[in-house]
Inverse folding.
């Protein structure tokens, strides 16, 4: 088991539906770490992760992760803030699922992707979303 960070490229985080269909949940961008939940609770990973195009990962083995936390207890605070941020995002998504119609949820997702991955093309306000 490892804790990994994306140095270059992107990682697609996905799950498999009950019907056996691969569902993309998010893309992990450079500078973002993932896989820490399984290191903390010892349970299996919650989702699958696949490199999206040319990707470079930095990975820390479980034993080294534990040693790093022992040597630098201030990292617990940073990891706690990271997981609180993730939890807030999850609560926002649950609220959207329960309160917004599909068109509004889709529009919000496209805007988020455009802010993160949008590339201006041409003279107008159009942007192309390129991931990876």
């Amino acid at each position: 088991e490892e804790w990994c960070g994306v140095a270059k490229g992107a990682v697609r985080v996905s799950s498999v539906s009950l019907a056996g269909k691969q569902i993309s949940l998010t893309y992990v961008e450079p500078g973002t770490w993932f896989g820490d939940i399984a290191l903390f609770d010892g349970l299996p990973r919650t989702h699958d992760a696949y490199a999206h195009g040319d990707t470079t990962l930095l990975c820390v083995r479980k034993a080294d992760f534990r040693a790093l936390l022992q040597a630098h207890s201030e990292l617990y605070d940073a990891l706690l803030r990271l997981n609180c941020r993730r939890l807030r995002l999850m609560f926002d998504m649950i609220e959207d699922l329960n309160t917004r119609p599909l068109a509004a949820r889709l529009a919000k997702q496209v805007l988020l992707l455009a802010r993160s991955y949008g590339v201006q093309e041409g003279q107008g306000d159009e942007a192309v979303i390129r991931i990876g």
